[in-house]
Amino acid sequence: MASATPYNAGGTIEEWREGRDKIIERKAGPGEDVEVEVLKNYYPPNEPKAKSPTKERKGSFAEECRDMGQRAKMAMRAYALSPNNTEDKAAPMPDLKL
Description:
elongated, alpha+beta
């Protein structure tokens, strides 16, 4: 199953299995490039294989989506309060339910 653990001042490491290979992704932080390491034939041939990389990454993907939603919400609020915004400031900010 995929795991995400912190490293390098807020970065993350994600690991999962694809067949006999172990995949490791490292990301230093938001907006940074992802570094991918593939450990070929890491698992012995008689070990059970992972059901699906998609299922393994489901939790991580949901967490990333929530994070992006929060960042979008903060950006919308910052824009609404910006002095360069010419839209009606009396209009209420939409409440984004995340």
